[in-house]
Amino acid sequence: MSFLEKIVQKDVSEGLSPERLRFRFPPEPNGYLHIGHAKAICVSFGLAGEFGGHCNLRFDDTNPAKEEQRFVDSIQEDVKWLGFEWDQLCFASDYFGQLYDWAVQLIRQGDAYVCDLDGEEVRKHRGTLSEPGVDSPFRTRSVEENLELFAGMRSGEFSDGSRTLRAKIDMQSAHIVMRDPVMYRIQRSHHHRTGDDWCLYPTYDWAHGQGDAIEGVTHSLCSLEFRNHRPLYDWFLQKIGLEEVPSQTEFARLNLQFTVMSKRRLRTLVEDGHVDGWDDPRMPTLAGLRRRGVTPEAIRAFMKTIGVSKVNSMIDLTVLENHIRDHLNKMTQRRMAVLDPVKMVIENFPEDLQEMMEAVNNPEDPDAGMRQIPFEREVWIDRDDFRMDPPRKWRRLAPDAEVRLRYGYCVKVKEVITDPDSGEVTEIRCDYDPETSKGRQPEGRKVRGIIHWVPASCAAKLPVTLYSPLFSIENPDDPPEGQEFTDFIDPGSRVETTAFCEPALAQAAGGDRFQFERVGYFHVDPARSSEESPHFVRIAALRDSWAKKEKNS
RNA sequence: UACCCGGUGGUGUAAUUGGCAACACAACUGGUUUUGGUCCAGUCAUUCGAGGUUCGAGUCCUCGCCGGGUAGCCA
Fold this sequence. Notes:
Layout: H1 3-13, E1 22-25, H2 35-51, E2 54-59, H3 69-82, E3 89-91, H4 96-108, E4 112-115, H5 119-125, H6 143-154, E5 164-167, E6 182-186, E7 200-202, H7 204-215, E8 219-223, H8 230-240, E9 247-251, H9 263-271, H10 286-292, H11 296-306, H12 317-331, E10 333-335, E11 337-338, E12 341-346, E13 355-360, E14 370-375, E15 378-382, E16 402-405, E17 410-418, E18 425-433, E19 450-451, E20 453-455, E21 460-467, E22 494-501, E23 513-516, E24 520-524, E25 536-541, H13 545-552
Parallel strand pairs: 1-2, 2-3, 8-9, 10-23, 12-18, 16-19, 21-25
Antiparallel strand pairs: 4-5, 5-6, 6-7, 11-22, 12-15, 13-14, 15-20, 16-17, 17-18, 21-22, 23-24, 24-25
The structure holds one RNA strand.
């Protein structure tokens, strides 16, 4: 049980009814959701589901300068895609009126004051990490004067940034957040929901806990860096004097190898053209993962296994990949496709014959049925499956070697034709053994190697994009001294090619997923496919224990 | 060194709350297999250090050491 489950379980066992149990996922609508957000979503929505409580989706839209409606829309789409349903759809901006009234209450109580210091001066008065701050000269204003000035701030009498409303706490506090934090700043920017109704906006600290309280949130979960804000979160709630208050608990955000997670860096990737947009299949955004063909089930299973704690950690990319493969293995139909084709001619196979071979669609799913693939005298095979000088334990093609063409016959190499200039293999000529159909082993010989192929006369030549991790180092979010994270973008992370596919693949529709046998999992990219031609993107390669073995030796 | 949080295998999480350190991933062996995929089996830690309390400590106490966070009118 995670530490969060323990907290909730304790509260429930002490009388908190599941009906009242409530969480919230509170994104700021200033960007696209990424896999780090997915962790937060899975944690809060997951806990709600597990204990029979509720979870809201609340937009923390208190800084109109950075927020946009399109992000509100994309975030909702992404949360739904991940597989969660929120109880209430909320906006911090819906609470602006209530927040204002509560601010007036704090002023009346002597717990807040209008400060005329500008940003620079506030910073100077705040002190440093190891030195206490100094009181603002405006700290001792009368309640009446504060009320009047605050009303003036509201009605637009003062210029942007000229005054703030600050909580009156303790400028000597060891917690910097408690040194009279700003509650309101004057900022004339158009809000995507409230328009120009307001020229002052509440800060995160002033809005967040109050929003939680208004919604009846019981458990407000956030990331570790907000731990220092907890005393302030509690202070505001206590000063307002609410009966039932939410409690904040912090947990570590997700860090994943070979990608960046900060909004600033993701924006740089998009704006400087390093990727093809927020939904580039190499991006860790949910939009990118979706286009890549990753399933929401795989993401949820991933989140479940990595768990949640208060320790900053880095998750191996392979963990995510394994979950992606695991789900795809069960759900995708198999097809054959050759990514780097070389011609094979089966000399003793009749020239005008097309023999239909029966292939299993998905060995993991008997209900997926069978399909037919035409077998002919000439087929395409993968260049990787032939070696002129095979290493030890090589099970594929080589001069004089015999392999099985998957779901077809065993063939034995008779002759290898190479380009006289480059030495590159251009054609492999074989004989087949007619007695080896339907998996029958040839007399007295054991053929271990099995390779994939496609018929040459009717192969569908389809565009494929091979994606691999965008970065070449494990932690691009923390690049080595003196270097930029963009220095580590792998130029080979996207490779455009053409695959020679079994004919049926030409009919694949956007959103379809397949396993290309012995190669990997592929998604028909809805963004780049048309009625006439599907465009495949590689979701993940298959595990390749042979490649690993060969590399190690 | 102002305050806050944390430290369990290569990695990430567990441990009936003081009772045989478990699971997954990675790595390495081997087996099954018409995908070198999947699947199956095996190997891989005396819990940051030193003391203390206790029949018994990953868990409680003390002192260290190490890592992370915090000085936006961002969230």
